[in-house]
Amino acid sequence: MADFCKTKSLIYRTTGFSEAALCNVKWVSVSLQAILYATFQDLSKDRS
Description:
Number of strands: 0
Order of helices and strands: HH
Structural class: mainly alpha
Mean pLDDT: 76
Radius of gyration: 16 Å
Helix content: over 70%
Number of helices: 2
Largest sheet: none
Distance between the termini: 35 Å
Strand content: under 5%
Shape: rod-shaped
C-alpha cells in the first residue's frame, strides 16, 4: 500500500487531494472488495 501512495503522490499534489485521504480511499475500496469476495465465496459454498 505504501508503494501505491508513493507512485501516485504527484497526481495527488496536482489534483489538490491529500495523499493520506486518497490512500485511505484506496484502502477502504480494497477492504470492501475483500469483504464482497469473501461473502460471495460463502454464498457459493452454501449453494453446492
